[in-house]
Amino acid sequence: xxxxxxxxxxxxxxxxxxxKNSRKNLAKTCHKLQEVFQDPxxxxxxxxYSPVELEKNNFLLGPALKHLSICWYSERVKVCNxxxxxxxxxxxDFCKKHENTVSDFLLDVCNRCPNLLSLTLSGxxxxxxxxxxxxxxxxxxxxxxxxxxxxxxxxxxLEAVTLxxxxxxxxxxxxxxxxxxxxxxxxxxKRPSVMLRAERSANMIPDSKPEKKLMLEKASRRLVQx
Length: 226
Description:
6-stranded parallel beta sheet; FXL22 protein; Monooxygenase; ubl conjugation pathway; 2 domains; LRR_dom_sf; Leu-rich_rpt_Cys-con_subtyp
């Protein structure tokens, strides 16, 4: 029996075991398998392991998407999460290559995936508060928002949660060093039903601006002399 003789339900089941690249390659073999590849039922979950994957044409983005995860674990994450003034020219050039990749992708999600239920972002150093604000506005069914090691996330995201996270049940802002204890307290006050977690966030010292850093160093030297 040839694979194309299977009914659509069986083909969808087979496709579900394949990664995005394998699905795309199989879909190229015939028209029937291409139709299966384009079936929204196949794309309710999307997992990405680097921003580069977002640029591949090997997945379908649409209203069927319920769960999205972009988790980038590598040494490059550390570079992307360094404040711009601390980066050398090589690091700046590297980060610039994909500076808008994730934010542009999330904008597309805002426009095309109104039924999103969960979003996980880890190591996405270029994501801003505005990205999360737009997503909360356009995906009113979002129940779980997990952010980890996203350096540009601040209390503005926490405020957006209190204003627009109408369905939110879980909020993680782990290793997001620029959120504050005051911002977390406002979420607890205004959204007491939200399960809030902020490991190594509000207690971490945000990166200082160069002039502030210099002042702190001088103050430390004076204390040592005393």
